[in-house]
Design brief:
Radius of gyration: 19 Å
CATH topology of the domain at 164-278: Rossmann fold
Distance between the termini: 32 Å
CATH architecture of the domain at 164-278: 3-Layer(aba) Sandwich
Number of strands: 6
Strand order of the largest sheet: 4-3-5-6
Structural class: alpha/beta
CATH superfamily of the domain at 164-278: Nitrogenase molybdenum iron protein domain
Helix content: 40-55%
Shape: globular
Strand content: 5-15%
Length: 279
């Protein structure tokens, strides 16, 4: 957002690095910023419990609230109906109609989205339409020409190095945040929970533990070393890799690269490097 608003205004992230976008408990200062913002951008209406009511109220008060999954250019997908780590018969019965908000893990979807987002913001600030379109075009071009090809190279090189012909599962994740990244770069991984704010039922956890007890997993991606991740990692002999696809990364958190110019680029690099290290 900072790049999209460059030269036009100030953009701020409401949450900080240690907060989950799914389980946001706002501090008084964050609540104050939320109620003062003129334009509010949220990945999806259902990303955090309780947020929908707050944003509906802000809309009534005259703020422009933009839900990114509602922008057609995003082509948002529903959450997956089946966990690849579990048996074919184990499917989600209620969640598949909800949209998966993690589209930002596909830089090409973000590139496609930017002009539509610029147009939407310009309905509130029409005087900035030309600047917004110019910034959106510039960012989208860089994502297509630099960021996406570099990630493709990282994954392609890792796949070429693959020499393990066993049935070891290369990667599984704590929560199902990686669907868009996997689809774009030809990957697959199972997960422990679909949405971290939701309770994992006893039946699902029982099947997860049973499968884990019979399966060797090379890496388990998790934002934190929570008890569910640690238990599955213990059974599968997986190494837990701490990676967070829901926040910007600082320059000291990933290797320097000319194409990774901001926190978003660096986050994508961190995810790509994590997958590459486990393939």
């Amino acid at each position: 957002m900072n790049e999209l608003m460059e030269g036009l205004g100030k953009a701020e992230s409401l949450t900080h690095a240690s907060q989950s976008a799914h389980q946001t408990g706002f501090t008084p200062d964050q609540a104050k910023k939320l109620h003062a913002a003129e334009v509010i951008i949220s990945p999806d209406a259902n990303i955090a419990p309780g947020l929908a009511k707050t944003l509906a109220k802000r809309t009534e008060e005259g703020a422009l609230v933009i839900y990114l999954t509602k922008l057609g250019a995003v082509e948002a997908l529903p959450y997956r109906a089946r966990n690849p780590f579990l048996s074919a018969g184990h499917a989600h019965k209620k969640k598949s109609k909800q949209l998966d908000p993690h589209f930002w893990l596909d830089p090409l979807r973000v590139a496609n989205m930017l002009p539509a987002l610029a147009d939407k913001i310009a309905t509130y600030w029409p005087e900035d339409k030309a600047g917004l379109k110019r910034n959106a075009t510039r960012i989208a071009l860089r994502l297509r020409a630099e960021v996406h090809p570099e990630i493709m190279n990282i994954i392609a090189e890792a796949k070429q190095r693959q020499s393990d012909s066993s049935k070891t599962v290369p990667v599984m994740t704590y929560h199902d945040a990686y669907q868009y990244f996997q689809k774009r770069y030809g990957l697959e991984s199972g997960y422990i929970t679909q949405r971290p704010e939701e309770y994992t039922g006893a039946k699902t956890m029982q099947e997860l533990l049973k499968t884990a007890n019979q399966t060797h997993v090379r890496c388990l991606f998790s934002e934190t070393k929570n008890q569910h991740a640690q238990r599955i990692a213990e059974l599968t002999k997986a190494s837990i890799i701490i990676v967070n696809p829901e926040r910007a990364y600082e320059s000291n958190e990933v290797p320097p690269a000319p194409w990774a110019r901001n926190g978003y680029d660096r986050m994508l690099m961190a995810v790509a490097k994590a997958y590459a290290s486990c393939l």
